[in-house]
Amino acid sequence: LPPAPPEPWEREARAAALNGAPAAVEVRDLHKRYGEHVVLNGLDMTVTTGEVVALLGPSGSGKSTLLRGINHLEDVESGAVLIGGRRIGYTDDGRPLSPTKVAGARAQAGVGMVFQHFNLFSHLTARENVAGPLRWVHGMPAARAESRADELLEQVGLAHRADALPRHLSGGQQQRVAIARALAPNPRVLLLDEPTSALDPELIHEVLEVIRGLAREDGLTMLIATHQLRFAQEVADRVVFMSDGSVTEEGPAEEILTRPKHPATARFLRIMG
Ligand code: ADP
Ligand code: MG
């Protein structure tokens, strides 16, 4: 695609960023399809700095595609994502960055991500899973990266398992390592894609407990796709409900979950509840 000149809203977002008041995440008119199948259909969403947003919606509604799109792990057809007023994956004048530069840009934008299936490096210990990216992506010296990893593992209650390989950890422990890894570079925005959906029921609690702690931290912006409605109500400042690739309803958790207005939300809550 030829480089598009900045749209007026893009200039506004950049100006806002310079004034120190950017939205943490700004999604504008995002479109994505796989073949004929439209997955994101003009999706708009804003997450303000420090906000904790729960992303709800039926399976297949496009939650993972949206989160991957926000983190530039997925190419989209049209529309834009701004993180702190800037587009990951593009130069300031709108040219796409080369793939080798995207990881650095993502790191610089301050976005971290936690996946449903943990995605740990299977041949690396818990400590190395956290320290590795700090070295490879952020260029941190090994000794510092490892002590930072130990701090983070302590924070998620896994200091005693730092030398374990993922296959020797429970699912809940693996997900806590993944959270530590995502937090290690001090992200401003943390994206969590159904972080407890792959866990046995008895292991969900320990992961939600860690996320609850993060949600209480000032300044960390979180966007969490989840089917845990009670948890969403408890931690989220706002709930965004997706259906068929766009946002059908959003508002305070209390309101959306108890008095949904859109039939798709009501149906989903009936099935989940
Ligand atoms: P959710 O996370 O809400 O369950 P997804 O974003 O994973 O939804 O998927 C949205 C739709 O896109 C689904 O119908 C899914 O089958 C389809 N989809 C997701 N990834 C791919 C892919 N790589 N290729 C083809 N279709 C995909
Ligand atoms: Mg998903």
Walk me through what this model shows.
A 6-stranded mixed β-sheet has the order 5-6-7-3-8-9, sandwiched between helices. A 3-stranded antiparallel β-sheet has the order 2-1-4, sandwiched between helices. It contains 10 helices and 9 strands. Helix content is 39%, strand content 22%. With 273 residues, it is α/β, with parallel strands linked by helices. The site of magnesium ion (MG) has 4 residues, from helix 2.
Poorly predicted spans: none
Ligand roster: adenosine-5'-diphosphate, magnesium ion
Report how far apart the termini are: 45 Å
Q: Main beta sheet: strand number and arrangement?
A: 6 strands, mixed
Please give the number of β-strands. 9
Summarize model confidence as the mean pLDDT.
Answer: 90
Output the number of helix runs.
10
| % residues in beta strands | 15-25%
- Overall 3D form: globular
Q: Structural class of the secondary structure composition? A: alpha/beta
- What is the succession of H and E elements? HEEEHEHEHHHEHEHEEHH
| Helicity, as a percent range | 25-40%
Describe the strand arrangement of the main beta sheet, using strand numbers: 5-6-7-3-8-9
Determine Rg (CA atoms, Å). Answer: 19 Å
Keywords:
single chain, 273 residues, alpha/beta, six-stranded mixed beta sheet, three-stranded antiparallel beta sheet, 39% helix, 22% strand, binds adenosine-5'-diphosphate, binds magnesium ion, nucleotide-binding, transmembrane, ATP hydrolysis activity
